[in-house]
Every structure is written in structure tokens, then in C-alpha cells.
User: Fold this.
Amino acid sequence: MGLLNPHLEDDDFADVWSARSVVGAPESDRPAEGHLRKCAECRVRYDSFTSWLDGLRSEAQAETDEIFGRERLATQQLNIFRRLEALEHPARVIAFPKFTGPVAIQASGRRRWTAVAAAVGLITGIGLGQLIGFRTGRSIQDPVATRQVARATVPAPESVLSLQPIAVDDDETFIEPEISSSQVRVPESLQYLNAITPGARDLEPR
Amino acid sequence: MQAEGRHAEARERYAELVARHQRRAARIAFHYLRDGAESDEAVQDAFVKAYSHLSTFREELPFEVWFTRILINGCLDRIKARTRRERWMVSMPESAPGERDFAERTAGHGPSPEDLVLARERRQKLAEALSRLPDRQRSVFMLSHYEGCTSREVSAITGLNESTVRVHLFRAIRKLRGMLTEGHRGAS
Assistant:
């Protein structure tokens, strides 16, 4: 309702309706109520507004009545009382099954000491083992000793690589290449080839 | 009775209360939750909770008011939990709110399939509009208009004073009118 439009609008209807539903009766001091009394056109529109609201209610009620039929409500009631009964008789806790035979607890102290001693022994053993292994490893890695070992194992180049004409009757000539080849660990099938092929050391300038 | 250990008798008396308020409770729960199964659970929870807390019930309030308060709080908690869940889950294609099969609904001498579809659409729009209202406005509207509670009862249930109830009711109606008639105009 305003200066340009003397009639009531939806907001006015909502205000009138909510006031009536809360208070329970029309409030005579409200201007919208006064206008409704005088204006037939607005009364018609107000009636249509209230019937729209009633329609909303009946629609909502029809929907819920359709969903919550008698059977459903009966089931619901049954569930409620089942739960109420369960409240009065709380669930029984079943005890954990006991051991079939008695457990010997007397020797537990001695057993504990034995376990501790075994653990200490094991740890000490591992520690000592590590220490000894470490020292041995260090002594092998000593450079002076390594060089000495290398000199002792590697034969003189002349003895290994000397190429001599093969004398068929001489036993030593057959044995010597075998020894030298075994020293450099050449596979048996390649020993002959190794013997007749010049090595890298032959190409070195003397 | 409950305190004296006369449980069977107490349950019998409580059964009368359940029978009297059950339908209304289901209606309120459904308007909040829009899901038949969840409404069932909410109603059950509310009745069980009310029974187990009967000792805290104050005589000056009607049972209906006290119980409705428990029910609405439960529904709001469920809505919050659902919102949290839906943040992480992909929603399934929407079915009818009452979970009844369309064929089941159309079988027999009921309304025509067309009427059912139209009614379903109208209800869907109404439910959407209601769900878009703030919690307080929705509660006030549903209690005073759908359930016919007096402003005093609504005030006791919601904890708002009567003049605030009136303001919320006015705002709720104005918004609903705007949303539903706009939708209607848009459709036609």
C-alpha cells in the first residue's frame, strides 16, 4: 500500500496473516486491517492469499500422510518399544574365555633373568664380533702389506710372456706354458690361444 | 514409575503418548529431512531420548512442546551431518521422497499418473522453497502453519519470544510467496 497504489500488496497480506495467526484475532489498530475492512477488492485478494497458504499446508500434509501410512507408523512404534526395552536390559558383556590350564607364574622371575642374560650375551657377542672383524679388515687393507702380497703373487713378466719355439720332445716346454697359464687363470679352452698371442705387456717399451 | 523400577507399566503409559504424537512427529521430521527412512530414525531417536530423559521433563511445559523440541534438534543435527557427508560424497540420482516405486503409486484406483507427476512437482518446489528458508523461519512457519501451534507453543519450542515468532512468520511467508509465485510465473 502506498501513495500510487492504494491497495494492499502481498507483503501487507503476509503481515496481516501472521499477525492474525499469532494474536488469534484481527488487530484493529493496524492500517492494513482497516483497509481490508473497507476494500472489497483487497478482501478478495486476501482470501486468495490465505487459500494459497492453506493449499501449501494441505499439500504438505497429503504428502506426509501418503508416506507415513498405518503400517509404517506401526513398524515405527514397534521399533521404538524394542529400543526402549533394550534400554532397560543393557547388552550383556560375555566374559573372555579363560585358559584351560593354570599358568605357572612362580618361575616368571627366574625366567625373566635368564632372558635378560641371554639378551646381554647376544648383544655383547655381536659387538665383539663386529670389533674383531673391523680390526681384521683394517689390517688387510694396510697398503704396505697389500703391496707385498701383490709382489709375491705376480710372477716375473719374462717367465710368463717369453715366446720360445715349441720343441716337441722337450717335456719342460709342455709343462711351462701350463704353469704360467694357470697362474694368470685363463680358461682351459683358451690356454693355447693365450700362449701364442702377445700380451699387453709385450707391447710396453722396455 | 520409571524411577521406581516399574518399567513395564512406564512403557505402557509411554505407548499412549507415542501413539498420540507419532504422526505429527513423523510429519515434522519429514518436513525437515525430506527422506522417509531418515525421518523414521529421527522420530524413533526422539521418542527414545525423551523416554530416557523423562526425569528432566518439567511439568510446566506440555509434553508435546518438550518432545517437539527434542525432535527438531535431532532433525537439525541430522541435516548438519548430512551436509558434512554430502561434501565428500557424490549424490545418487534423486528418487521419490517416500521411496515408493512409481508403479506402486500408480497401481490401483489412485489419482492419474499425470496428477501424481504434477503433485510431485508442486511438492518438490514447496520443499525446495522451505529448505531455502533460514532454520528459525522454517521452524516457525511449519509449527504455526502446518502443525497449528499457538505462538506461545512455538515460542516455547523454539526458545524465541512471541514477537520474534511473529516477525519470523511474516518473513517466512513473504519469502515463500516470492519464491513460489516467481517459480509459478516463470513456468507459465
In short: Chain B has a mean pLDDT of 82.
